[in-house]
Amino acid sequence: RKVEIPSPVTSCVVANAYNTEIINAIGALNCVVGVDYNIYQDKDSWKNKFTEDMVIGKSQKDLNYEKIIALKPQVLILTGNGTYEEAQKQLEPFGIKVVVCDAYYTNEFAQNCALLGQVFGKEAEAKELSDYFTEKLDYIKEQLKDVPKKTLYFEYRTEGNTTIPGNFFYDMVEDSGADNIFRDAKNVKIDPEAVVEKNPQYIVKVSAPDVYSSYYPPTSDDMKKIKDDIVSRPGWDEIDAVKNDNILLLSHYVHGGASKLVGTMYIAKFLYPDKLPDLPPEQVFKDWLVKYQKLDYIEGHTSPAY
């Protein structure tokens, strides 16, 4: 699509937190006059910046067009899995343009930084942000190019919920240099017994459904409960990853930074610590918080800690 928009945009409404995080990271959050409910309710991550009268709908798939029109933004920014075609139809008569940005896709991080930098006239800031993470990604690729891949089972929140090509988490895992044991699966939902059969060397788990996703990390008791659930599954005591205690737990918040590239850094370091001496994932997360999200650093988002 080609969209003609003001240059630069000074007033916008946004759906999807990944989009808002990049906007914040390039210094354009002051241009945001409305957000979806999922962003609004995460008050800790946004320091209560967004108020109830700024909510433009439940999510990118459920928008309140009357509210968007009332806020009079120049642009609506939402994701490709939202209702952008309907949004374009509803908002065009009011001069509100629709920009699609899929900031949750890891492999589109640099492209999305460039896009949002162009939208807000923050090209230099967007390039600096993009370079910070892509340089580290290049370092991982270079260091691991001749290294045999280690087998990994990745699980997102619920038992048996993994990642396959096209899924939101696939590139996060792939870019870490892992051998994803379910890369050829047909569905993200797999039988836990299949994990026993494939016997991965490592396991990475992102949070759990009953642990709130927040800037504040799970408690140590939460982490223990998540790990106990993994090791107590029938037959899982025979998996090499369990026998060797090669289990990494990531909070829901920490894995998602910079379109999940923060998650990639942790997984890569977890798998290949001796091959990546110049990759400090906790410092990367700290920079993401302090420098790019303007938040205080808070530890405890991973187990084991880095």
In words, what does this structure look like?
With 306 residues, this protein is α/β, with parallel strands linked by helices. 40% of the residues lie in helices and 13% in strands. It has 13 helices and 11 strands. The chain has helices at residues 17-25, 37-41, 65-71, 84-91, 109-120, 123-144, 170-174, 192-198, 220-231, 240-243, 252-255, 257-271, 281-292; strands spanning 12-14, 32-35, 57-59, 62-63, 75-78, 97-100, 151-156, 179-180, 202-206, 247-250, 302-303. Strands 8-7-9-10-11 form a 5-stranded mixed sheet, with helices on both faces. The protein has a 4-stranded parallel sheet with strand order 2-1-5-6, with helices on both faces. A hairpin with a 2-residue loop joins β3 and β4 (62-63). α6 runs parallel beside α12 (257-271). The longest helix has 22 residues, at 123-144. The chain starts with 11 loop residues before the first strand and ends with a strand. The relative contact order is 0.12. The model has no long low-confidence stretch (mean pLDDT 96).
